[in-house]
Amino acid sequence: MVTSSAERRSCRRQRATEVFAKQAEAALDALALLDFAWHDCYGDPCPSDDVIEDVWVLGDGELSEYISAAHLAVIDCRDLRMYAGEARRRT
User: Fold this and answer.
1) Phi/psi at 48 (nearest 5 deg)?
2) The whole model's pTM is what?
3) Do residues 87 and 60 lie in contact, with contact meaning Cβ atoms separated by under 8 Å?
4) What pLDDT was estimated at residue 52?
């Protein structure tokens, strides 16, 4: 189901606040940019929930890592999936 960018942001807000506290809005901005880039590259309004979850996993509570993971999602989501899988196995 296609949702608006405002709805996606609202749905993501609680987790962003829990993980990034005062930097939650920056994390949400990164996901909004990911949505725009994803649309421009792949024609879909936003990446799948699995891709978004992989970004959260690789971010591991560090905004810089989170932004890098969002970038990787657009560049090569297969690598993102592989690295997120490795991170999950380490925990």
Assistant:
1) -70, 165
2) 0.94
3) yes
4) 98
